[in-house]
# Entry
Amino acid sequence: MQPDIIQSTIPIWSQALGSWNVSITRNAFEARELKKEYDEVAGVWQSKIERLGFVKGYQRLMEAAFFNRALLPTRPLKVLDAGIGTGAMSTAFTQVVETPVEILGVDLSPRMLEEARENVTGPGVCIETLESDLIDLPVPSNSFDVVLMAHVVEHSINPISILVEMHRVLKPGGVLIASITCPSLFGRYIQLVWRTHRVTPDTACDWLEAAEFTVPEVVGFDTSATAGARSLGYIAHKAATPLRDGGDDDEL
# Structure
């Protein structure tokens, strides 16, 4: 739920007409505008996404990403929820993985962060929040085992730059799990209201590969709820590198 800081345009429509190429672009939200929009809807956001089936969709996505949970390290996992919103994807993660976890939730909206702190709870769950955009995060490189992104990438003016930053903060062998709105009538509505990119699976995979992630696995939400036809999940990894002697990092 984050834009880049510098205002620019997002492509809306393009069509080749003979030697002409006609396109329509739209000014993206500035950070302060998007912050205001999400502050205003924070109180009802969780109930809305639950009603549309996104919470169940996130759970199915986590089950696909962590189907062999016996391979997870026993130490607390460090998770970045980039554009955490009300914390729905982090909650799905904690319910599926069931291991101690330290979560850093980042969002532009302080009201969303308040909701996330209330919603993301449970045994072994520690959450901290940070009000920030997603460019140049004030965290060291190779810090997190997992990065979560629930409908964030399509909001960015430059999606690849956001994904490059996510790659930087992931540990080698770490996993990025993202959900992105599909092209559909609902997707057009989201594009109209929230000024987002239209993202096909090929486009999303190209962005992830450009940011040096492995070829992503594309996962359907596999749910009869409306969310299943409106979003796809993407699971990609940062390439693992040999650990130095004495290192204690485990690959996921």
About this structure: Confidence is low (pLDDT under 50) at residues 1-7, 242-247. The longest strand covers residues 170-181.
